[in-house]
Amino acid sequence: AQSVTQLGSHVSVSEGALVLLRCNYSSSVPPYLFWYVQYPNQGLQLLLKYTTGATLVKGINGFEAEFKKSETSFHLTKPSAHMSDAAEYFCAVSVNTGNQFYFGTGTSLTVIP
Amino acid sequence: NAGVTQTPKFQVLKTGQSMTLQCAQDMNHEYMSWYRQDPGMGLRLIHYSVGAGITDQGEVPNGYNVSRSTTEDFPLRLLSAAPSQTSVYFCASSRTSGALTDTQYFGPGTRLTVL
Fold it and tell me: Which entry of A70, A92, B20, B22 is 20 to 30 Å from B11 by CA?
């Protein structure tokens, strides 16, 4: 079975500071990894995803994530936080032998002016 | 395209009542799913469908039924509402039902309260 762990349910950063949101996964087969963002009172939207190929993946709004197989991690980063980045972020995993996505519990990002 | 639409946006039920949450997509997506979102628990899969006429259970299916008679629609039925079903419900769809590499598109959610 697959699972996702997001360390830190709440993260606060100053505007302009580095954003680092952590995601570790568990999977017995090669995973597909996703980061989604949820703004208040909205549905989730895709930030970026890793399926195959280059392990450093760039997404929308300046975010990127690196798939590290040896560490079973897929941490999300952004060099400089903006006020508009305040939202809830979810890491998710799927595999090609199943039909389900598995989501982490989410990390709420607060950006301090 | 309207994308994924959900109705209603808000609903209050009494314990024991039944209701159907509607979900529709206009992108001709094969895969559709229902999640519930609860504080501190993230999104948990209730049911999913890999195509018209095919449905399967997710992580938390008890108390819910689904059907998929058309590609576009995937309603979620609460058979006898319980306070434990108070949650925000999201419908999502993605293009194919094979290898799950496709982006999921989420609806705006239905906020359900069961008294």
Answer: A92
